[in-house]
Each structure stands twice: as C-alpha cells, then as structure tokens.
Write a structure and sequence with these properties.
mainly alpha; 5 helices; binds zinc ion
Length: 155
Amino acid sequence: MNIFFYFIIFTIGILFGSFYTLAVYRIPRKEDITHTHSYCPNCNAKLGFFELIPVLSYIFLGGKCKHCGEKIRARYIILELLSGTLFVIFALILGLDVYNLDIKSILTFAFFALFTTYIVLTLAIYKEHKRVEKSVLYYGIVITIMYMVYLYILK
Ligand SMILES: [Zn+2]
C-alpha cells in the first residue's frame, strides 16, 4: 500500500512541476495562471485533455506539438520528473506512512509543497527575466505568515 501511496505523492509532485513551468511562463507575461486554457507557445493551439497530462503526453506525442510539430522543450519533462522525485524524497524524510498519517506530518508536507513552489517560481523567473515578481513575493510572505501561525498554534 505504501508503494501506491508514494506513487500518488510522485504524481502530485509531477503536477506541481507542470504548474511551475506554466506559472514561470505566464506570470511575467501577466497572463492568467488558473483560468486560461493551456496552449502551445508556438502555434497558440489550445491543448486537449490528453495533451495536458504531464510526462505521459510528452512520451505519446513524441515530444512534439500535435498541431504544429514544434518540439516541446525536454526541460519541461525533466523539471516535472525532478519535482516528483523531490516530493517523494521529502515524504521519505518525513517518514510519511499511509497507515500512520497524522495531521502534523500532512500539514508539514503541505507547507513543504507551498514553499517549494515559492522558491522554484522566484528562482526560475529571476533566471529568465532578472526580476522578482511582486505577486510571487506576496505569495511567499503569506505562506511564511501562515507557517508561523501554524507553529504558534501547535505549541
Ligand atoms: Zn504548436
């Protein structure tokens, strides 16, 4: 059962990785990150449901856009897999066990995911645009305050 549980954590990590690439592309362009449908940055074709599945769609499409044939950058899939691996490593460090899940380790894991999101977005956007996005910074401040409140309540 734990292997299945860790596979789910790996999948969640991959979904976060997929969100990172989308957010790093869209936030500096002031595009909506939650409502706008994903599209190919080359031909602007909207992506269908199966093209939105991280990693698998890349493999089935042979690393190319179905509509224009433009190569999808391999770093997307690498980032998704790295993110999945990182989530599994952190779950292992926390000793997450599907038979002994307590609210404290679940929340610690959730904060790990939120902080990782903050760090990845800040560094990646800085690397590409040499600036820090205000919205990402505010997000970082909000989760830091949430974490401090959480630690305070826990005591
Ligand atoms: Zn395309």
